[in-house]
């Protein structure tokens, strides 16, 4: 494979869950698989998905370059941060933005977009 090739993972009709180009891993917006759980459950679900995808691309959470977090309700910030703080690797906290946004499904409370470097 040439270094200019784009690798796409879990390609669907509408989007790929992940792409890798030139040693950089780009994740699509990760949303909870179960929209019926609270913000803590949804955050843990999304972060577990991120862990799996990063591992598949030869990366991990210590290699995250940037994170964008979308919350349906900013009142969920404390609960999300509680799970995030337990998950993020000390000394490797990435640049992060957190904003409120209308998400794609009524039950979704969180969506997370990650960019990371490969190992």
Automatic annotation (TrEMBL):
InterPro entries from the UniProt entry: RutC-like_sf (IPR035959), YjgF/YER057c/UK114 (IPR006175), YoaB-like (IPR035709)
Coiled coil: none
Secretion signal span: none
Highest taxon in the source lineage: Bacteria
PANTHER family xrefs: PTHR47328, RUTC FAMILY PROTEIN YOAB
Official protein name in the record: RidA family protein
CDD domains per UniProt: YjgF_YER057c_UK114_like_2
């Amino acid at each position: 494979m040439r270094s200019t090739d784009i690798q796409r993972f879990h390609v669907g009709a509408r989007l790929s869950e992940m792409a890798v180009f030139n040693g950089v891993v780009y994740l699509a917006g990760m949303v909870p698989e179960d929209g019926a759980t609270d913000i803590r459950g949804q955050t843990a679900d999304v972060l577990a998905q991120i862990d799996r995808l990063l591992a598949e691309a030869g990366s991990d959470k210590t290699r995250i370059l940037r994170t964008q977090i979308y919350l349906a309700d900013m009142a969920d910030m404390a609960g999300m941060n509680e799970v995030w703080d337990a998950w993020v690797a000390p000394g490797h906290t990435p640049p992060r933005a957190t904003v409120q946004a209308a998400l794609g499904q009524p039950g979704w409370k969180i969506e997370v977009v990650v960019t990371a470097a490969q190992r």
